[in-house]
Fold this protein.
Amino acid sequence: MTAQIIDGKAFAATVRAQVKEQVAHLIADHGITPGLAVVLVGEDPASQVYVRSKGKMTTEVGMASFEHKLDVDTSEAELLALIETLNNDPAVHGILVQLPLPGHMNSDLVINAINPAKDADGFHISNVGLLGTGQKSMVPCTPLGCLMMLRDHHGSLSGMNAVVLGRSNIVGKPMAQLLLGDSCTVTIAHSRTKDLAAVVRGADIVVAAVGRPQMVPGDWIKPGATVIDVGINRIDKPEGGTRLVGDVDFDSCAAVAGAITPVPGGVGPMTIACLLANTLTACCRANG
Ligand code: GUN
């Protein structure tokens, strides 16, 4: 069997087009331009790439983009003061503080200073609690993008066995909550899980979010299962140079799976599309 490729790039383009259309309506009919503020502290190269890409996509859908680049030595108090300003700025509907933050900052404190209604990432403790109890919340972008692809591919996920590899607050835990909300039987596996291969072999849906290049081999995958690869890892090519790979070994998994997301072009583009969708949602809720 050769897996169907789930084209996240094309799906994300469709989501962005829908967001763009609704933004145009908001501007034309209500004079409201949704705005997203992205805060980057320091000069982490990967974070700089993400932030640039987010800003570009934000303006492409017609939203206002506010970028705040702070020096790596910025104090936590200064960052908290900026967040307070953004919380009170009516032109800002979504706020994202790029992670990781420099070591002298308490990320939990910073994230929880964001107005939960403007928390475009869905990382605020209030949104985590709302999601965990099945209430209306801001939903973290990467797991939301994964869920949208799964729903699009399968229709209903009810009763499926889902294994989430990784227990991060950003992906693993919210992903498990979302799958549970769609009536999957959910297992969260991690570095201490015993007989990981056997656990993964029981899965109709595998979501890999461990940050370890090509960790999941094809012989762990149940024939016909759907594999969602959240990993973005840069590895050396034998002939020199580098390339991006996911957390699953694409070729061997694609030979067994029913469907699989590629890296790049799978989950990554969906994450930014969902960030824009979250900002639009926040703007609509703020304006009744
Ligand atoms: N760093 C890596 N992924 C993310 C994300 O989804 N949101 C934020 N704010 N920072 C990140």
